[in-house]
Amino acid sequence: MISFSAFLKRFLSDPVAIGAGIVLLVLVLMAVLAPLIAPQNPYDPLQLDIMDSEMPPAWKPGGDERFLLGTDAQGRGVLSTIMYGTGISLLIGVGAVIVQAVLGITLGLIAGYKGGWIDSFLMRLADIQLSLSTLMMAIIALALFSAAFDANTYADYAIIMLILVIGIAEWPKFARTVRSSVLGEKKKEYVDAARVIGLPARRIMWGHILPNTLTPVLVISTIQVAEAIMIEASLSFLGLGMPTDRPSLGSLIRSGFEFIFSGSWWITLFPALVLIALVLSLNLLGDWLRDVLNPKLRRGED
């Protein structure tokens, strides 16, 4: 396992990792501090004025210095909605990965340690799940949910539903990664010693084997957050994600798409750029972590 000092040295010597880390840090801080630093609360109707709708960015003719990046069709400042929307996208992405990790790590540990028919059953279940498109399953589940409940109920539980649907659909990636690590770890001497002294299987799996399988889990978690954010953005763009009154980055892009050809390009462009920056920074950091924590996988090496 790489030491913290070596890890930090590798990070500071890689300009791509530094750039991705800075971008991600800025976006996370912007999202967390949105209630304190955002010029406007886009969820408060009392702060909205329809007369401010579709104002261009402040540096364009007709712009207003109150709205640096312009406003949308509801009079909400684009900068404020991006700050709040980034927080919702990150919440859904991280929440979905937590669900994936809990399910995947548990089933992967059981499959790898127990072996036999349990392993075969769980891995065939994972194969079936992986053969199905996550986006397709999410569309079906969310379409049924939106049809079964009224708009207000859907808005109240949209975040929870998105986290659960994306999390449940993506658990096999964690399960297969953990199972692969467990198959290698359970043959080592420290596991044999734990069995000899009579430790129960549950304690061996969770207390001894699991800590030695967390490196690949950390790498895949970073990449999966980016993927979950993209899935949520796709669903929101299709109208099956976050409602327009509590927008994520995906629903912000969708809300301005119909205005893009009428001249109000900023409503879609700026949220899209933030979404690209967020996903790209997460993917670059995940790729860097993979190379640092798994030296055999470094680019250019066999």
From TrEMBL:
Segments traversing the membrane: 12-38, 88-113, 125-148, 154-171, 265-289
Keyword Cytoplasm annotated: no
Main location class: membrane
Keyword Transmembrane among record annotations: yes
Superkingdom, taxonomy of origin: Bacteria
Membrane topology: Multi-pass membrane protein
Cellular component aspect of the GO annotation: plasma membrane
GO terms (BP aspect): transmembrane transport
Compartments where found: Cell membrane
InterPro entries: BP-dependent_transpt_permease, MetI-like, MetI-like_sf, OppC_N
Residue span, ABC transmembrane type-1 domain: 86-286
Keywords, alphabetical: Cell membrane, Membrane, Transmembrane, Transmembrane helix, Transport
Matches recorded under Pfam families: BPD_transp_1, OppC_N
Gene3D superfamilies for the chain: MetI-like (1.10.3720.10)
Cross-referenced PANTHER family: ABC TRANSPORTER PERMEASE PROTEIN (PTHR43386:SF26), OLIGOPEPTIDE TRANSPORT SYSTEM PERMEASE PROTEIN APPC (PTHR43386)
Family as reported in the entry's similarity comment: Belongs to the binding-protein-dependent transport system permease family.
Name of the protein: Peptide/nickel transport system permease protein
